[in-house]
């Protein structure tokens, strides 16, 4: 049931449209064509008629040789079906792609001969239906980029010395040279061409063919232009051109022709300069010029209009006349406004990359045209597809915007696909971005979520698309509004960009309306230009929001009572939902927001029926549906697959044989979903109270029940892989026959030397036996004799088996073997590849991090036996104890309201006799009696009100004795589990939805015994991955020095670190139970001496009696001791992580 009051006229749009529609446009497939047709029927003018690939093939055609006698052009690209399915690609480390073919025509202009061929242009990665790409077997997402739109921008700066307003203007193209104008404190108008030195603007006008008279006639009334013209000493066009050339190319001899060509190439040559459609659209709009949208270069009109605009701006005028008798408002631009920032989605990012590849290919084609024999030329001989393939591969493999998909849970994946990033090539860098760019801007409303953004250096640079936002053909984000006509709300819905929205007056979605759609009050709270809020008369309102959750993203819209949370905590809540781990059993929240179903289905991790029909067969792996149209559909159910983050991806059917299913009905749940609803955590009974100081500072106390009953247990799957390669000394071999290994260690390996499925493994266990040939050593005469007598002894091999790394354990659940002999495609030099999947069930334990949805996070400090937990009067023990001090200072009161409503939902209610207004409203919606454990929806900004919660707490269904455990105040009488005494004061008790986050203590806890050392300094490596130690740093050394703990310090800096001889001797002494010997000289000291000697300084080390100490490298004793202890010193200790 839902507490919503507002009827939403519009469903939330497809949440993955941002990705899929953009990619469909790039390919120009059937789905895209159908969408374009539908938009045309609806009378929309702004739909693109060309697909992305068509655009670039048309741009590059024709490629002509230097003399213009031959040309090559491309048309009609098409795709063959992909070679492998998505699942096969994941399995075999392939890229999910389709071969692309293009029709290429070679025309010999002298003879008029045309040769046409279909040319293979390489494999083009395809998007899966879920909006991801499979690149080399891993799932990746291409994030949309927020960039400054091409166009013309005017800005005002204040001069520091004279306090005068200075005006500047930039004309920014999609690609090409910038053109900048500025008016300085002496009121002269300057121009910067291609970021070079400033010149008088009149020089540019003269170079374009204007005379001084024409300039005076057009701009004579402006003091600034007259002053500029007086200072300008160039006479006529030629002189002006030469002047520009000298500034742009200093040191080269200027001629009129070269100057003319230079200027032409900079701004008027379509090959070198392109505003893109969006740039032309912005310039036409801003300057009031009337050029075709396809006009990609600047025109003389643009330049003149720009100069006039900046001069009028300087003169303080409000408007200027544009084309077709339009009045253009003269004002400076706000660069952070969403009308000036656009999105480059997947399609456009890949298109730009392909464009780069084609441009590189174009050079090759030109060269080949001149070198090859004209008669023998065919399109195939001219084209080299390598640069195109390479640039696509480079983009998906290394671009900052192509990211390893976040698959912790379905919400994480969905949010990742809807992410908007201002970073990346052509965007901002973290260091350069100031406060203004990161700040929330009024134009973000309904377009980018003001809440969901990372904490840390990327704050405000990475955002999330708002739930109703959509992207128009120019890449601007639009948001829907309902039209208001004469103070009455209509059903008509208009999508507005940030620019258009500024012209209107908008009311918010929760404005009170009468049944006929008119406003209930005469004055309405509205937003006007620049996000200002004021009260306006009902007749002045133009639009009203479609939904209260319009301004927030999907993750934020899943926080109940968001309206009662401080934004900083809501931010943490949004971000932490994405880190929650899929649990063994998912449980939908008792208190949700109504967004859960859409989020789960659109994330694509559930299975939905494609057609209506009846379920014919259900098993763990397949669901077969007999469709109404007589066909059968079989759906594959994924079982315990590993996600990118090592969480378990497991689907389970929720329909039974004989069930009727409709189109898009969920037939199988995925991870973190419950009956098709997003279910990231568990509903736990919480008490807000301190407990013996164990929940001080956000620590959390849990009940042992959650451990025993696997309430918060999750499955984690690790993948371990090993390959057998060809080495210089012969091939490596995967085998059970490993030197110096006892039979019990090999007990779980099969005859191939690979572990059996179902084996329990602990750190150090062999998963795959592998041996590598060792170099032959020089034989002694005795050995040679023995060898001659007994024949060839087996070659020396060493054990390089794949072992379970430190701190990991579990059950082997899967083994995949790929071998060259079986015909699997493997990287060069690899003969066999084995992957072992180890799963572990992780129960909740102290040190794990838990969180609610309101940014209320904490670490478990203690798990109490059930009998020690505080309990309610009927004996029910609570599950979790939170510290009440975590609420007031953090200002996330939403968690308290959730606690109360959670209790109400768990208990159910009956309000038959209540006459109050809130009860009437619930009765009208048919919620007079509600059964226990009913899920509630309290949508953001439109949720349950306080009087409803208070009233319902008083009317929850009583237990069989007629008692209510929790009073109308939301508090209950709790008893101490240890003494059975009641606590002195009533305590808030209720149900909260708790998430278990991916920050698990098992992955973080770490201790080092003996491990790898760094090659140069011989000091232990750092970090858990390297099995490293804890650094005893500079400050810690000072602390011990201050205490005078000389011996402890000496031990730390020598035998525990980099005294190579000492540490072996100490190990020996410990093993033999002797006293620890004196420390020697640390390796880092030797390195320091060597460094100084390398600077030609003669440095000697003297002992206390003045004798020179020799720095010997190793000692015979050491080798002896090492041999006894079984330490192999012949091999240098590994220096890198790979070797470890």
From TrEMBL:
Give every RNA polymerase Rpb2 domain span. Answer: 148-344, 403-471, 1028-1102
**What reaction(s) does this enzyme catalyze?**
RNA(n) + a ribonucleoside 5'-triphosphate = RNA(n+1) + diphosphate
- A biological-process GO annotation: DNA-templated transcription
Molecular function per GO: DNA binding; DNA-directed RNA polymerase activity; ribonucleoside binding
* Cross-referenced Pfam families: RNA_pol_Rpb2_1, RNA_pol_Rpb2_2, RNA_pol_Rpb2_3, RNA_pol_Rpb2_45, RNA_pol_Rpb2_6, RNA_pol_Rpb2_7
Q: Which PROSITE patterns match?
A: RNA_POL_BETA (PS01166)
Residue intervals of the DNA-directed RNA polymerase subunit 2 hybrid-binding domain: 609-1026
InterPro entries recorded: DNA-dir_RNA_pol_bsu_ext_1_sf (IPR042107), DNA-dir_RNA_pol_bsu_external_1 (IPR019462), DNA-dir_RNA_pol_su2 (IPR015712), DNA-dir_RNAP_su2_dom (IPR007120), DNA-dir_RNAP_su2_hyb_sf (IPR037033), RNA_pol_bsu_bac (IPR010243), RNA_pol_bsu_CS (IPR007121), RNA_pol_bsu_protrusion (IPR007644)
Identify one Gene Ontology CC term for this UniProt entry: DNA-directed RNA polymerase complex
List, for all copies, the residue spans of the domain called DNA-directed RNA polymerase beta subunit external.
481-547
In the Enzyme Commission scheme, what number(s) does this protein have? 2.7.7.6
Q: Which UniProt keywords apply?
A: DNA-directed RNA polymerase, Nucleotidyltransferase, Transcription, Transferase
Major enzyme class: transferase
Ranges where the RNA polymerase beta subunit protrusion domain occurs: 18-388
Q: Which family does it belong to?
A: Belongs to the RNA polymerase beta chain family.
UniProt subunit comment = The RNAP catalytic core consists of 2 alpha, 1 beta, 1 beta' and 1 omega subunit. When a sigma factor is associated with the core the holoenzyme is formed, which can initiate transcription.
Its job? DNA-dependent RNA polymerase catalyzes the transcription of DNA into RNA using the four ribonucleoside triphosphates as substrates.
Q: Which NCBIfam families match?
A: PRK00405.1, rpoB
Identification of the protein by name: DNA-directed RNA polymerase subunit beta
Organism of derivation: Nonomuraea jabiensis
What's the name of its gene?
rpoB
């Amino acid at each position: 049931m839902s507490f919503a009051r507002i009827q939403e006229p519009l469903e939330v749009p497809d949440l993955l449209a941002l990705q899929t529609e953009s990619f469909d446009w790039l390919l120009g497939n059937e789905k895209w064509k159908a969408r374009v047709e539908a938009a045309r029927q609806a009378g929309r003018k702004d739909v693109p008629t060309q697909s992305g690939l068509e655009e670039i093939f048309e741009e590059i055609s024709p490629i002509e040789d230097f003399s213009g006698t031959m040309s090559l052009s491309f048309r009609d690209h098409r795709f063959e079906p992909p070679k492998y399915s998505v699942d096969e690609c994941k399995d075999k480390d392939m890229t999910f792609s389709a071969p692309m073919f293009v029709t290429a025509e070679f025309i010999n202009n002298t003879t008029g001969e045309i040769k046409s061929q279909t040319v293979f242009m390489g494999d083009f990665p395809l998007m899966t239906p879920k909006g991801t790409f499979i690149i080399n077997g891993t799932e990746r997402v291409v994030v949309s980029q927020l960039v400054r739109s091409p166009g013309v921008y005017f800005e005002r700066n204040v001069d520091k010395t004279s306090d005068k307003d200075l005006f500047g203007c930039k004309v920014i193209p999609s690609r090409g040279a910038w053109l900048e104008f500025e008016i300085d404190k002496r009121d002269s108008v300057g121009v910067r061409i291609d970021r070079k030195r400033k010149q008088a603007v009149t020089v540019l006008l003269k170079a374009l063919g204007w005379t001084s008279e024409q300039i005076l006639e057009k701009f004579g009334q402006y003091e600034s232009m007259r002053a500029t013209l007086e200072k300008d000493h160039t006479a006529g066009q030629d002189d002006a051109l030469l002047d520009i050339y000298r500034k742009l190319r200093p040191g080269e001899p200027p001629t009129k022709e070269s100057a003319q060509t230079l200027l032409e190439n900079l701004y008027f040559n379509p090959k070198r300069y392109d505003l893109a459609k969006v740039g032309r659209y912005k310039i036409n709009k801003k300057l009031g010029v009337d050029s075709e949208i396809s006009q990609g270069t600047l025109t003389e009109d643009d330049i003149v209009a720009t100069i006039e605009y900046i001069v009028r701006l300087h003169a303080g005028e409000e408007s200027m006349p544009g084309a077709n008798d339009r009045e253009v408002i003269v004002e400076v631009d706000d660069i952070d406004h969403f009308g000036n920032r656009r999105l480059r989605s997947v399609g456009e990012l890949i298109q730009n990359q392909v464009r780069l590849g084609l441009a590189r290919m174009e050079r090759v084609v030109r060269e080949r045209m001149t070198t090859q024999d004209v008669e023998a030329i065919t399109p195939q001989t001219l084209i080299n597809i390598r640069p195109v393939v390479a640039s696509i591969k480079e983009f998906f493999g290394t671009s900052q915007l192509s990211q390893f998909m976040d698959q912790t849970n379905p919400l994480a994946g969905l949010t990742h696909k809807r992410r908007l990033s201002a970073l990346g090539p052509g965007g901002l860098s973290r260091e350069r971005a100031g406060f203004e760019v990161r700040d929330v801007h009024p134009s973000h409303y309904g377009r980018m979520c003001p809440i969901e953004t990372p904490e840390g250096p990327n704050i405000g640079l990475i955002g999330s698309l708002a739930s109703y936002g959509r992207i128009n053909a120019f890449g601007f984000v639009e948001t829907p509004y309902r039209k208001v006509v004469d103070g009455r709300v209509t059903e008509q819905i208009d999508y507005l960009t940030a620019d258009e929205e500024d012209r209107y007056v908008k009311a918010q979605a929760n404005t009170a309306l009468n049944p006929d759609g008119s406003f209930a009050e005469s004055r309405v709270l509205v937003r006007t230009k620049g996000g200002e809020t004021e009260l306006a008369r009902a007749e002045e309102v133009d639009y009203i929001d479609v939904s209260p959750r319009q301004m927030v993203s999907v993750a934020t819209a899943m926080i109940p009572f968001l309206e009662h949370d401080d934004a900083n905590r809501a931010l943490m809540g949004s971000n932490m939902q994405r880190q929650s781990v899929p649990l063994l059993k998912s449980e939908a929240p008792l208190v949700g927001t109504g967004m859960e179903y859409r989020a789960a289905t659109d994330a694509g991790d559930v299975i939905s029926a494609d057609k209506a029909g009846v379920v014919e067969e259900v098993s763990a792996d397949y669901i077969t549906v007999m469709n109404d149209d007589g066909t059968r559909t079989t759906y594959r159910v994924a079982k315990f697959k590993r996600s990118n983050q090592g969480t378990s991806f497991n689907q389970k059917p929720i329909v039974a044989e004989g069930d009727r299913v409709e189109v898009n009905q969920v037939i199988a749940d995925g991870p973190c979903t419950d009956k098709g609803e997003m279910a990231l955590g568990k509903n736990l009974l919480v008490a807000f109270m301190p407990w013996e100081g164990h929940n001080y500072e956000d620590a959390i106390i849990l009940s042992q029940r959650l451990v025993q009953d696997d309430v918060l247990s999750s499955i984690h799957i690790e993948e371990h892989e090993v390959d057998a390669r060809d080495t210089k000394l012969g091939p490596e071999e995967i085998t059970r026959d490993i030197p110096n290994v006892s039979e019990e260690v090999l007990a779980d390996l099969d005859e191939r030397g690979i572990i059996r499925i179902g084996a329990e493994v602990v750190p150090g266990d062999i998963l795959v036996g592998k041996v590598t040939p060792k170099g032959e050593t020089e034989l002694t005469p005795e050995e040679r004799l023995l060898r001659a007598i007994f024949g060839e002894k087996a070659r020396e091999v060493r054990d390089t088996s794949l072992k379970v790394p430190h701190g990991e354990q579990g059950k082997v659940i899967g083994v995949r073997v790929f071998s060259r002999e079986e015909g699997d495609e493997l990287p060069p030099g690899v003969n066999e590849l084995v992957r072992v999947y180890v799963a572990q069930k992780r129960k909740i334990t102290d040190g794990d991090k838990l969180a609610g949805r309101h940014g209320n996070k904490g670490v478990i400090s203690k798990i109490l036996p059930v009998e020690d937990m505080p309990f309610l009067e009927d004996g029910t023990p609570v599950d979790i104890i939170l510290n009440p001090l975590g609420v007031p200072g953090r200002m996330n009161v939403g968690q308290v309201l959730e606690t109360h409503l959670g209790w109400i939902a768990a208990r159910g209610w009956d309000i038959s006799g209540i006459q109050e207004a809130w009860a009437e409203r619930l009765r009208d919606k048919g919620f007079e009696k509600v059964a226990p454990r009913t899920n509630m929806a309290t949508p953001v900004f439109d949720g349950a009100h306080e009087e409803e919660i208070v009233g319902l707490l008083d009317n929850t269904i009583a237990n069989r004795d007629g008692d209510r455990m929790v009073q109308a105040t939301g508090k209950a009488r709790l008893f101490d589990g240890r003494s059975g005494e009641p606590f002195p004061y009533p305590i808030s008790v209720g149900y909260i939805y708790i998430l278990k986050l991916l920050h698990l203590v098992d992955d973080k806890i770490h201790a080092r015994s003996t491990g790898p050392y760094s090659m140069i300094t011989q000091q232990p490596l750092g970090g858990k991955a390297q099995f490293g130690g804890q650094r005893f740093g500079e400050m810690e050394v000072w602390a011990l020095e201050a205490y005078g703990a000389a011996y402890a310090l000496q031990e730390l800096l020598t035998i525990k670190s980099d005294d190579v001889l000492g540490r072996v001797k100490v190990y020996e002494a410990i093993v033999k139970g002797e006293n620890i010997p004196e420390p020697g000289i640390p390796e880092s000291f030797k390195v320091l001496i060597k460094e100084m000697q390398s600077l030609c300084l003669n440095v000697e080390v003297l002992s206390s009696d003045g004798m020179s100490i020799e720095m010997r490298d190793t000692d015979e004793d050491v080798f002896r001791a090492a041999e006894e202890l079984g330490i192999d010193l012949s091999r240098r200790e590994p220096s890198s992580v790979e070797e470890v």
